[in-house]
Design goal:
The chain has 5 helices and 5 strands; from the N terminus they run αββαββαβαα. The protein is an alpha+beta fold. Strands 2-1-3-4-5 form a 5-stranded mixed beta sheet, sandwiched between helices. The radius of gyration is 30 Å and the shape is elongated.
Length: 176
């Protein structure tokens, strides 16, 4: 058995493209075939992050790809969730890091990639906070009240002259 993850299934590519192109689903969840490193589509749905949250299993390694709407720009953003439950056997946990990198290369276009271990890591509010923080622009300037005009005041100084040197007295003094 190879230690590399197998992503060659047509079902995986179809589910990924359906999420990417908004063809009836907004998330897809992938997991391993029993006893192998071959990924398969576990489930898909169009109920948003709330529906996806219920699909994660404590004893499995799973990868999710979801379409969400960025609250700042109202544009679609893509989220990848790499799930390694606390109940996964140690033998499989060792391969999780390299497999998640291979899955990330396959699921190109993810704006936010999350590593998750338990239900609190995949809460929809937490995921949306991460999407909002990663959007790169917060369009809040049109929501703020305009500032009152303040004229430019002269700048003060803390400099105090010690005194003026007496050049004539210095010239009249005999050289040493």
């Amino acid at each position: 058995m190879s230690l590399q993850v197998n992503l060659s299934s047509q079902d995986i590519a179809k589910a990924y493209n359906d999420v990417l192109n908004a063809n009836g689903i907004d998330w897809a969840l992938f997991t391993y075939e029993k006893g192998t490193n071959d990924l398969k589509v576990q489930s898909t749905g169009n109920g948003g992050l709330e529906e996806l949250e219920e699909e994660f299993s404590d004893g499995r390694i799973q990868y999710a790809f979801a379409r969400v709407v960025d609250p700042n720009s109202q544009l679609p953003k893509f989220v990848q969730i790499n799930w390694c439950g606390d109940g996964v056997p140690e033998v499989k946990k060792g391969l999780f890091h390299t497999h998640s990198n291979a899955v990330s290369r396959f699921l190109r276009g993810a704006h936010v990639v999350l590593q998750a271990r338990n239900e609190s890591d995949v809460a929809p509010s937490l995921i949306m906070q991460r999407v909002e923080a990663a959007s790169g622009a917060k369009y809040s300037s049109h929501k703020e009240a305009p500032r009152k005009f303040e004229p430019i005041a002269p700048v003060g100084s803390s400099y105090k002259p010690v005194g003026r040197p007496d050049i004539a007295a210095m010239k009249a003094a005999p050289p040493p």
